[in-house]
Design goal:
The structure holds two protein chains of two kinds. By secondary structure, chain A is an alpha+beta fold. Chain A has five helices and twelve strands. Chain A has a single domain, classed as GHMP Kinase, N-terminal domain (Ribosomal Protein S5, domain 2, 2-Layer Sandwich). In chain A, helix 2 crosses helix 3. The longest helix of chain B has 21 residues. Chain B has four domains: about 55 residues, RNA polymerase II/Efflux pump adaptor protein, barrel-sandwich hybrid domain (OB fold (Dihydrolipoamide Acetyltransferase, E2P), Beta Barrel), CATH 2.40.50.100; about 70 residues, Beta Barrel (OB fold (Dihydrolipoamide Acetyltransferase, E2P)), CATH 2.40.50.140; about 90 residues, Ribosomal Protein S8, Chain: A, domain 1 (2-Layer Sandwich); about 40 residues. Classes of the chains: A alpha+beta, B alpha+beta. Chains A and B meet through helix 1 and helix 5 of A and helix 6 of B.
């Protein structure tokens, strides 16, 4: 909450510059995705780095009873843990508002894209379905956890393999993974565009995130269709703002898709 | 005579046997373990006659009296401000230790508010706190500029022998720089120059353990500043030309596929043009 940092961001923005010399609509250069970083303990895993930001995602699968209104569908659950080692402003303990929001935004991106066919996760209608847990752990927060988390979740889903399941004893052998993937029909990726004063920025740093007026996270499918959105921050966005921000995000999603 | 296992300026890790025998003496970063002397930290070995010391590569800041530190106000009561000084000890600034007159029942946030950065001096240190004072030449609330962090073990490198490094950075970039002993550095100057100073200090933070650092850094700054001054002296029409070509390019790309994006591209570049006119 330091005033001089806000002033510094504003004075630089007036000249069209950012604190780390990047352009306003420029992602950090080193974006990488690593698959299968934890093959022993998770059914699927991935690590995403955007600059110094690092996020690890893991997929665990369990068998559960379906919801009574969706008897033939499996479920997914997204959890984000913002632990203090990622950023010292995070606190351990019960999930914070930010971590819940982040988890829900990632969840929505995947759910609403229709990329996963939940009917395929059904084992026996009304009794047993696969439950897919997507756990996201930011290792280092150097800004833009949103985009990194959504990318990590998608990469981990792509990496995931079903564990061996014994239909007679109803037991899962997590040590043996089958070759069956979770079939993904699309690849939803989220891009966040923030607004500070009258400027739009992508891939914000921690300081910029702290002082943003408003942000818009947009999830895109492979063909560029929008499947989910989330607005944050205290500032207002006009229709014109939103249209512009969507266009910027649509432009930038290519950068993230390339890393996949 | 004892035996020495390392040479001067070697990198040693905790537990490394540095020397054998009772003639050698441990200093900072080293300790005696029976017959031998071992390293306590990851760092560089310094040998001064019979005295062995290890200069750590990274360390936590430990406040000491008379240190100049940069702190961030994080809390206040009705007579005390608390400042984060990137240490396990919090900085405590009482109303008695500020130059301003503070009346009874005054709102302290009108003097130093949450999130303000202050340049203060450490008065005294106890087990939980470090007492700060704002009374002294140059001590003040910082306004403008930006703050970057370096490891507190690298602060002596940033300052240099008798301030040689820091004055070289100031002179060459024309920025105002204040280095707090706790590893916070305040920089203020022209944006382009500021970037050079920030990069130079980050370079010191990374390569502070190397020899010939001063030359390395001043070469680095000279190179960067040349680019900056080149940019500044470049005629403005040239810059605009570049933008125009960029605009054309993006228009071409867009026409083929996404007509929606074109509109934004144009508006965005118009904005840039407006900016450069200013």
């Amino acid at each position: 909450m330091a005033k001089i940092i806000r002033e510094h961001i504003h004075t630089l923005l007036e000249k069209g510059m950012r604190q780390d010399k990047r352009g306003l609509l420029e992602f950090r250069k080193d974006i990488s995705v690593e698959y299968g970083i934890s093959p022993k303990s998770a059914e699927g895993s991935a690590r995403v780095r955007i600059g110094e930001t690092e996020v690890v995602a893991g997929i665990k699968m369990a068998i559960a009873e379906p919801y009574p209104d969706q008897k033939d569908r499996g479920t997914i659950m997204v959890g984000v843990e913002l632990s203090p080692f990622a950023n010292n402003s995070f606190e351990s303990g019960p999930p914070s508002t930010e971590s819940i929001e982040l988890a829900r935004v990632v969840d929505r991106g995947i759910r609403e894209s229709g990329a996963m066919d939940f009917r395929k996760l059904c084992i026996k209608e009304g009794e047993k379905v696969w439950q897919v847990f997507i756990d996201i752990y930011p290792i280092n927060d150097a800004g833009n956890l949103r985009d990194a988390s959504s990318l990590a979740a998608l990469a981990a889903l792509k990496d995931a393999k079903f564990p061996e399941y014994d239909k007679k004893t109803f037991e899962i052998d997590y040590k043996k993974l089958t070759s069956k993937n979770i079939s993904l029909e699309d690849e939803p990726i989220e891009v966040t565009v923030i607004k500070i004063k009258d400027d739009y920025l992508v891939d914000p740093s921690v300081e910029e995130e702290e002082w943003l007026d408003a942000r818009l996270t947009v999830a895109f499918l492979k063909d560029g269709d929008i499947c989910a959105m989330q607005k944050g921050g205290n500032g207002m966005l006009s229709t014109e703002d939103i249209n512009k921000m969507i266009d910027i995000a649509q432009d930038k999603v290519i950068v993230l898709r390339k890393a996949l | 005579m004892g035996e020495l296992f390392f040479e001067e300026r070697n990198i040693v890790v905790p537990g490394d046997k540095l020397a054998m025998g009772m003639d050698y003496l441990p200093a900072g970063g080293a300790f005696r373990d029976g017959e031998c002397i071992r390293s306590k930290v990851l760092g560089i070995l310094g040998i001064n006659g019979r005295v062995l010391k290890v200069i750590p590569l990274k360390s936590q800041y430990r406040p000491r009296p008379n240190d100049m530190v940069i702190g961030k106000i994080t809390d206040m009561t009705n007579s005390v401000w608390f400042a984060k000084i990137d240490s396990f000890r919090d900085g405590v600034l009482t109303v008695r230790e500020v130059p301003e007159y503070i009346g009874d029942g005054d709102d302290l946030s009108q003097y130093y508010n949450f999130g303000d950065y202050v340049l203060a001096k450490v008065l005294n240190v106890n087990s939980t706190n470090a007492g700060l004072t704002m009374k002294g030449p140059g001590l003040r609330k910082l306004s403008g500029g930006r703050i970057i962090e370096v490891n507190s073990a690298k602060v002596p490198r940033v300052i240099g022998k008798a301030g040689s490094m820091i004055s070289a950075i100031k002179e060459k970039t024309g920025c105002r720089v204040i280095v707090g002993q706790n590893g916070l550095v305040w920089i203020q100057g022209e944006p382009e120059h500021e970037f050079v100073a920030v990069e130079a200090i980050k370079l010191i933070n990374e390569k502070g353990h190397l020899q010939g650092l001063t030359e390395l850094v001043s070469e680095f700054i000279d190179k960067k500043m040349k680019n900056v001054s080149k940019k500044e002296t470049e005629e403005k029409p040239k810059v605009e030309e570049k933008q125009v070509t960029q605009e054309k390019k993006s228009d071409k790309d867009d026409e083929e596929e996404q007509p929606k994006r074109r509109a934004v591209g144009r508006k965005a570049s118009k904005k840039v043009a407006k900016r450069s006119k200013k």
